Amino acid sequence: MADPNRDRLGGKAIRDYFFRPVPAKPGIWVCKCNTERKEGRGYTNFVSHVQAQHPEALHLLQCDDDGRVSTRSSTVLGDNLAPSLFHSSKAVKTHASIDLVVSGLLPFSVLNNALFKEYLVYASFNTLTCLKYIRKLTKFVEEKISQIFPERFALIVDGWTASSTHYFGVFASFLQKKQENMKPYYWGSARLKTKQI
Fold this sequence. Notes:
Blueprint: H1 11-18, E1 19-21, E2 28-31, E3 36-38, H2 44-53, H3 55-59, E4 61-63, E5 69-71, E6 76-77, E7 80-81, H4 89-103, H5 114-119, H6 127-148, E8 154-162, E9 165-175, E10 182-185
Antiparallel strand pairs: 1-2, 2-3, 4-5, 6-7, 8-9, 9-10
Helix pairs in contact: 1-2
């Protein structure tokens, strides 16, 4: 009979797979989800964090005879688990709820509908909660954009129609110090062609 604990990950294997030491802080390790944990005499601190915050990821891993960690599922990217498995379950549910409303082009008020809530992944999610997280997401995106773009840049606005579908695009173009030409920065499938100045 096969040993049921054969593929079970030990504390050291869990720590080494999910965490890395923080050079500036001796004895502190950081998880792939950016949560810091203090190293003690054993591995309980690391194991409890992974069991509580990443149970799905933990079930997709196995340990071979040499003590190496490997994946046992098709929901992985190469030897690494899908990055979404390293976010808290609250973050994943919040994202799913916002994605459902925004991608589905639904009004925010649908989140207050009792029938809709019955089938929603995150049951306590309502219009106020959704708007709170959208504002936080907006601030996060604004900060990321401000890190990418220089102080001066041009915005190009374009709209087009294909059959009965309407599209709207906003593109940013800016000068780089190394090159004296305009560099396009875009999202989506439309490309901006620029000429040298």
